[in-house]
């Protein structure tokens, strides 16, 4: 439950400084090999500071198979190198994020993502567990709005919105 997973309030506006060698070690620790295509994908994603999609990587790296890209992104998300965000329509995007339980503020205009670890759901989860007999093991929260820059600079209609 959240009471065990959540950390004190912290806003993170920059991605952590992971190196490809850090990801190599993490993948090895979880039983995955670092192949050359995976290494290229890892280098590409670690250099990003905005959400991206698997299809963007497919377009940028046509020599790497679509299945390899999708599988690698899911592996990186499962070992906590990437966070999976849902776009409108339920399509996933990814962002490099610091490990651990976190939530996100997402600018619906430019796509800027700010991570935060303060969790407002401790009481709700406790009550839901009591009222429903569910064994709740996690939750996901994304809050959509306009970042300070987009509030002053009006643009076209939002690219990102709540699902």
Structural commentary:
A hairpin with a 5-residue loop joins strand 2 (82-86) and strand 3 (92-96). Helix 3 (36-46) packs across helix 5 and helix 4 (54-60) packs across helix 5 (66-78). By secondary structure, the chain is of the alpha+beta class. It has a four-stranded mixed β-sheet with strand order 1-5-4-6, with no helix packed on it. A two-stranded antiparallel sheet has the order 2-3. It has helices spanning 2-5, 20-29, 36-46, 54-60, 66-78, 122-132, 148-152, and strands at 11-12, 82-86, 92-96, 103-107, 113-116, 142-145. It is built from seven helices and six strands, in the order H-E-H-H-H-H-E-E-E-E-H-E-H. The chain folds into two domains: 1-15 and 98-163, Dna Ligase, domain 1; 17-96, Winged helix-like DNA-binding domain superfamily/Winged helix DNA-binding domain (Arc Repressor Mutant, subunit A), CATH 1.10.10.10. It is 37% helix and 15% strand. The relative contact order is 0.19. The longest helix has 13 residues, at 66-78.
């Amino acid at each position: 439950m959240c009471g065990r997973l959540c950390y004190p309030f912290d806003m993170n506006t920059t991605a952590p400084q992971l190196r490809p060698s850090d990801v190599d070690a993490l993948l090895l620790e979880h039983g995955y090999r670092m192949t050359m295509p995976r290494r290229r994908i890892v280098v590409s994603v670690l250099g990003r500071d905005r959400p991206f999609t698997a299809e963007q990587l497919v377009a940028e790296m046509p020599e790497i198979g679509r299945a390899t890209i999708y599988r690698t992104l899911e592996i990186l998300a499962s070992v906590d190198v990437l966070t999976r965000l849902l776009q409108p329509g339920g399509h996933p995007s990814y962002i490099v994020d610091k490990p651990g339980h976190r939530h996100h503020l997402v600018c619906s205009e430019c796509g800027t993502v700010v991570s935060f670890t303060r969790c407002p759901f401790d009481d709700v989860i406790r009550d839901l567990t009591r009222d429903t007999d569910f064994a709740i093991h996690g939750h996901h929260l994304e809050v959509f709005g306009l970042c300070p820059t987009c509030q002053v600079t009006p643009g076209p209609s939002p690219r990102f919105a709540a699902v």
